[in-house]
Amino acid sequence: MKFLYNAQIHTLNPAQPQANALVMDDQPAHRGRILAVGDGETLKAQYGGLAQGEDLDGKVILPGLTDAHIHLRQYANFLQSVDLFGADKATLRAKVAQKAAQTPPGAWVQGYGWSQDNWGGEFPTAAELDAVTPDHPVLLMGVSLHVIWANSAALQAAGITAHTPDPPKGVIQRGPDGSPTGLVFEEAMSLFENTLPAPTTEQTLRLFEHAQQQLWQMGITGVHNFDRIPSFITLQTLRQAGRLKLRVVQNLPVDSLDEIIAAGLRTGLGDELLRIGGIKAFADGALGSRTAAMMQPYLDDPAGDHTHSNDSPSRPVNTGMLQLDAEDLMEFGQKAVRSGLSLTIHAIGDAANHQMLDGFEQLRRYEQAHQLPHYRHRIEHVQLLHPADLNRLAELDLIASMQPIHATSDIEMADLGWGERSRYAYAWRTLLDTGVQMAFGSDAPVDSPNPFYGLHAAVTRQKASGY
After folding, report:
1. Which residues of the chain have pLDDT under 50?
2. What spatial distance separates the first Cα and last Cα of the chain, rounded to whole Å?
3. Are 361 and 334 in contact (CB under 8 A)?
């Protein structure tokens, strides 16, 4: 056993909010499990002869924190990619060129974190990457995770040409002659999935373990993961091998709903380290890619030029991309709740949130009429609500799963794209006052998973600089 004393321990237990010592098990099967928390003299008398002592000299101990929305596989990949957060275009091109110089010709160069708002709002093109990486296919994931910037070699490897049709719920941006510009949005990003070299199983396991270690160092001991089925398989392998040390709630994609139901998977199934969460679906895109579904057009992209496609009529305005409406949610929601599965729906724009609230209102009536459990459904992000919808999450007993760090990361984007509507964005205090249940996360790698950055944003609504 290990005896930690002379500490400032915040237990979050209302019956015992403060303590100055704790005792931990150090046996291999239960290493790190807390056996007792309390007064140092009392615990020393009880365990002193059995435990190795360590004086913490007044240091603070907090319970492990849970990130309620993270993409573990993408975060693990980000740790291996070119970091493009906050980079202007010249810096970005220099970083990509440096990585290419260290990479064998023909091998892929991947990066993450770029945003067109770092260089005035104009979307980039493949030609700009071609100039610095002629011998490597390049894929750069946008900070929103809803847009990829590719060079010509990557487009060619994926077989994306002027004749490639837009996939459902996705857009290939095209130039005046119909040729792809290098940007693909939403579901069109899946066109690259089969072109990237697949890591071995052991490489994937090590990627996850590295991400796990990074999260521990930030005080995170639990996550709600929003990756797809392959990530869930990796987590099961880690769990079986005794290498999973995070508590993980795994949410599963709606496009696998029939297989999930056939396999008998239910929300809550699993153990303390890995269990099933809800069924994840996307109602819209993201603010960064200007694809979040809005009731009124984006102020800085009124014509929708960034997602214009020759394969579909030009839209007169850009109000984003609505991927689900209320009836869609009701259709798959009935199947899910009949099979013991809750829902967790991505909705960012005010139109997407409105549609999902309408859908959940119908689903709540269905649950009641059929004497089904009152499921703990969630809306992920809830970034912008119409004023008429502010009370509806509480009225429908929906969990608002939000990411406070987005408010400070997105200050400029929200003002440019939404203008005065931003007064109803990132409204956790308003929602909290309505009585809604809330869960906070980071959406990493969209933002840093460091929970203290998120707590700072939640309390101050300020960037680290104080802005």
Report:
1. 308-315
2. 46
3. no
- What stretches of 225-281 show up as alpha helix (H) in DSSP? 229-240, 257-262
* pLDDT tens-digit readout, 18-50: 999 999 998 877 777 899 999 999 999 998 788
CB 184 within 8 A of CB 124: no
Q: Identify whether the C-beta of residue 190 lies closer than 8 Å to the C-beta of residue 205.
A: no
The string of pLDDT tens digits covering residues 77-108 is 888 889 898 899 999 999 999 999 999 988 99
Nearest to 384 by CA among 413, 362, 364: 413
**CA–CA distance, 253 with 22 (Å, rounded to integer):** 41
DSSP string across 369-414: HTT------EEEE--B--GGGTTHHHHTT-EEEE-HHHHHHSHHHH
Supply angle C-alpha 365, 424, 397, rounded to 5.
25
Taking residue 72's Cβ as centre, other Cβ atoms within 10 Å add up to 28
HSE (side-chain half, CA atoms, 13 Å) at 242: 4
Written as six digits, the tokens of 453 are 């950055």
Distance CA 346, CA 380 (A): 5
Q: Provide the pLDDT for residue 380.
A: 98
Cβ–Cβ under 8 Å, residues 150 and 285: no
8 Å CB contact between 442 and 405: yes
The β-bridge partners of 53 are 3
Which of 80, 93, 147 is CA-nearest to residue 115?
Answer: 147
Cα distance between residue 313 and residue 319, in whole Å: 15
**Longest CA span, the chain:** 81
Tokens representing residue 286 in the block:
């993201």
**Angle between helix 350-369 and helix 326-338 axes, rounded to 10 deg:** 40
